[in-house]
Amino acid sequence: MKLIYNTKNLFYFIWFISLSIQAYFTEITYDEAYYWMYSRELAWGYFDHPPAIALIIKIGYFLFSNEFGVRLFSILMSTLTLFILEKIIQPKDIKSFFLLIFSVGILHFIGFFAIPDSPLLFTTAIYLFFYQKFTIKPNIKNSFLLGITISLMCLSKYHGIIIVFLTIISNLKLLVSRYFWIAAFTASLLLIPHFYWQINAGFPSVNYHLFERSTAAYKLTFTLEYLGSQLVLLGPITGILFFIAAFKIKAKNQFEKTLKTLFWGGYIFFFLMSFKGKIEAHWTLFIVLPALYFGYHYLISLQNQKKVIRNIFLISGILIIAVRVLVAIDLQSNNANLIAKLTKQFRNKEDMLAIKKQAKGNPVAFMNSYQKASLYSFYSQSEGFSLNNIMGRKNQFDIWNVEDKYRGKKIMMIPNYDIKEFDSIKGVSKKMIYHFIDNFQSFSKVKIDVKNIESTAIKSDTLNIKINLTNTLKTNLNFNINEEYPSYLYYQFFEGDKLIKQQKSIKIDNKTLEKEINTKVIVPDKAGNYGLYLTIKTGWLPPTINSKRYLINVSN
User: Fold this and answer.
1) How far is CA 522 from CA 459, 464, 507, 550, 552, in A?
2) Taking the model in full, what pTM does it have?
3) Structural domain of residue 396, as residue ranges?
4) Mean pLDDT of successive 10-residue segments in the chain (556 residues)?
5) Which of 92, 160, 309, 471 has the fewest CB atoms lying closer than 10 Å?
């Protein structure tokens, strides 16, 4: 017993220390920098995600103002997640349990990356721990504990809603259980601040995830890449064994039935979603917990093949460690090297410092790149922001209203497309151009509403529409303040995420605001389903996102 106890302590200690070393020596990634930006302005919600990731980064960065500080609580949560999973499984063969964990690549990287999946996996483990108790003994205490963990999952990542939904599907008796409704009421009560934030902000997360996130036309590669990535997610070379385990191990109680539903239901849900758009591999992360549960029971049930299978898991773990080392070490001396190219996302600090030198103290705007803007802010400790236009999408920088903050100031603009007349930044690993704007003006906070749009049209038809331009800011806007940057009304037709047609309409000035305007829109000359946007283009800058997407079916 003492030997087992020492083995556990040693494993968790090594896990925490190895991830801490990794976190300290690995540069911050684009997404982590974005969530670090969240943490600078704590709120009950953000454009893309709930607030948990911002809070844990805020605390860690307060303690250690570096990469390790940003990732500290992700590492703690990773270690505690495995500890809780051990309490759920209660493995008799502790070495096999730790070997399974060691072989799953996603656990190593989610273990130190500061992304919303870290608190999600942690809170899901807590949820399953209390749900296991709830299925055995439903009472007031377990109801409250279950409700608290449901709210924590949803405040970590919206995937928590999927986990609760699949739990209900696996156990429909919950719908007639007063104890479950106590849990649901508790969770709803704790989520009120986030609901209130969404209402005040105009439901940005709902609109983005349900309606705006994926507008691209379906490609078979979406589904094929999703299916292939899931094997790697649980591997890299042992993924198929977890699927075999989930299929062969029979559920003996309600808790295991729920785990089965979470495993297969999660895969089916995102498989169906792949027909709507591209699926990121880590979106199914919560499936790792039931996979490890069934994987452990399958491994210990083997007799003749047990040694072979354990060796395969060991090889998988060794490969993962090799990748972790490559991520941490510097291969910049040979940027043509394949490995250097694959690990480039972890090598951006020098580029950001080169941009800072070129900016000469001016704020830096990155066109359609909240990630680069965030990474620049982190490493330069200077002002960077994302300026979004119709060829990109809105993000948290729109909620922060950075345009109003920098309006009238001199800024350095970094476009995301080539402009021959602009100069290149010196000292960056890949060509990057820039241009200074002395009196910055942009008007994405002008909302354009269409009053009489039809959902159908004939190709090449001319639509006579009425629009309203509304200033959503409390401050006054002046379209005439910079004569070198006049503003015009534009409209665009997109087929999926592909721009089909763009046309200038009328000039916008101060008299245009808060008035109903008549304008003409000529639909594309080809039949199809299109998304129509009304936008404002100021100077040479691309048009900003001012209207919602209006769906129009164009026929012959």
Assistant:
1) 9, 9, 17, 14, 12
2) 0.92
3) 348-437
4) 69 94 92 97 96 98 97 97 96 90 88 95 98 96 97 97 97 96 97 96 88 73 90 82 92 96 95 89 93 92 73 80 75 51 74 96 96 97 95 93 91 93 92 94 92 89 92 86 89 92 92 87 93 94 93 92
5) 92
